[in-house]
Fold this sequence. Notes:
With 317 residues, this protein is an all-alpha fold. Helix content is 76%, strand content 0%. Mean pLDDT is 75; it is low at 1-7, 222-228, 253-259 and 284-317.
Amino acid sequence: MSHSVSSPASERSLLQIAGLPYFLIAFVARLPFAMMVVGVLTVVVSARGSLSVGGLTSAAVGVGTAIFGPLLGAAADRFGQRPVLVVLALANGTMLAVFGLIVYGDASDALVLLAGFGIGATAPQVAPMSRSRLVTMISERMPASRQARTVSGTMAYESAADEMVFVFGPFIVGLFASLIAPWAPLAGAAALTVLFVGAFALHPSGKHIALARGRTGRRPRRHPISSARPARRGRGHLRGRLVLRLDADVADGLHGRARRAGAGGLLYGVMGIGSALLALGSPGSRRGSHCAPAGWSSPSSCCWARSCCPSSRHLRG
């Protein structure tokens, strides 16, 4: 009798368990993170007229994320996602607004770099927290016979979602900077951060009680933090060089005109389409087949960069 009652619940998909609004909110909440680096580079190059300062400031954003990202993840693991994300949504939205005032003001370049570091340090880690919520839902609300397949499909979706936001994020930066003003992408990112990261934080799934957590979502003890794979560092290095090269060519070809300051973001956004399509197709491919496309990505991207940006020698020295 109990089996017949629990059977319908056990047949629910992850979409039914989490709800469509969750996936929409979690997707849009990732966009500000994808807009930050290119947006900072665009506004600094436009306001300060220096590609070097723009590149260093974008690097400072990445350094801030690299240093504080694991600490913020540990804080969410210890105290729960909701309080950490609420604080980060407000702090990061404020930092993006303050950065615009600093970069257009008379502040020194050192203060611009410090503000960029603050943007990265307060960047909400929505993507890994979303994966954590979904895996918890799968492991505790779905039968064991369906968990492995559902986790595989969910991770493929999450990978595709990450790629898609890095398609739309730089594209939105380029669109806003070209049609409105170079500061518009950061203003939009600040609004999205407060609204959608806040909504993601307050979503009922943020207070889901896992088996290993207390009533508030806190974990009773700390766990070690794993390091990032070297392949991801190489991928980030490649993308950073490419977007810097694109902005340099656009700035050289257009003589720094503000109305087209974000054209590099438009070109960079197109690059992620192939990655997103590959991620969407990964659930149906065999385990060993993932290595080949991953190996092709770097050489093909380098060849594309050489053909599209033949003047890359100007960045050296």
